[in-house]
Amino acid sequence: MFKFTYFIFVFFTLSVDASTFLSELEELSESGDMKAKLTLSRIKLYELDTAPIPQSLDIFLKDNTQRRVKKRLNDELYSTYKDHLISSLGCVDGENCLKKVSTYQVLKSERGDVCFPGTNCEFYKCMEKKYSCQSEGVNYFTELAYPTCSTYVKNISQGYFSEKGIEWIYEVMVCLQKGLVKECDLDNSCDKETRKKSCDHIVDYTLNFHPSCYLESGVGVCRLPLKDKINIWRTVSKFLTRDEREQAYRVVFKCVIGELSE
Is the CB of residue 236 less than 8 Å from the CB of residue 150? Predict the structure, then answer.
């Protein structure tokens, strides 16, 4: 027990890399540690150590489930949330400050253009346009955020998720986008000395912010049906960087601790 507790302390505080975490976890599991065994079994079940294809659920979900969830979230975005942004950032065009640009929405605030969150993945195209991170060698928006988001939407259409899973995915989608707006626009924390530093800051911020969206959106990833959890992790696995994979392990571990404490 002490060895496992110390190992988790080191992993969470000193940021042990994913491969080291797995090898150490396997050693603890072989020694008979139950928490280590359960954590390792979840990681392998979700195939977070590989890059697999999700399994289809034997559940037919009608389109109205998706429409209902998206409508609820969009109603809040285009009323309470939009009013909050305008109140905080101002508007350059009276009541008409929300504009469609290309495939995404932009709020024309007194502090500049703000990429407006939504129940789709176009927000990340807006963020890439705004910060031009790919040209700085930082591919977060183009190779992680947008592809992962788009794959979730595709897998929803193919019936991989339950109603709770669909709701969780869209809740997380909006949570992640709102988080970036808060950090970059409301808190004005993304404007650094150089574009590269701005992009690096965004990546660091998202790494730390993502787990809270996974754990707290909808019913929380830990309380989703097992097949949803399997398909969620298998959806994101192939896109994860080393640092993102570490965060995924942390979320899985928190779920395991929650299961054992119930």
Answer: no
Interatomic CA distance for residues 146 and 165, integer angstroms:
19
Contact 42, 257 (CB under 8 A): no
Tens-place pLDDT, residues 217-241: 989 999 999 889 889 888 888 888 8
Q: Residue 52's Cα: distance from chain center in Å?
A: 19
* Contact status, residue 251 vs residue 46, Cβ threshold 8 Å: no
How many beta carbons lie within 10 A of that of residue 79, not counting itself?
Answer: 10
Bridge partners, 107 (sequence order): 98, 114
**Minimal CA–CA distance to 106: which of 87, 85, 88?**
85
Q: Which residues, other chains included, contact 111 with Cβ-Cβ below 8 Å and sequence gap of 6+?
A: 89, 90, 185, 188
- Tell me the C-alpha distance between 17 and 73, whole Å: 36
Q: Give 116-148 pLDDT, tens digit per residue.
A: 999 999 999 999 999 999 999 999 999 999 999
CA distance 257 to 251: 10
Q: Which of 68, 76, 75, 50 is nearest to 239 (CA)?
A: 50
> What radius of gyration, in Å, describes the C-alpha atoms of the chain?
20
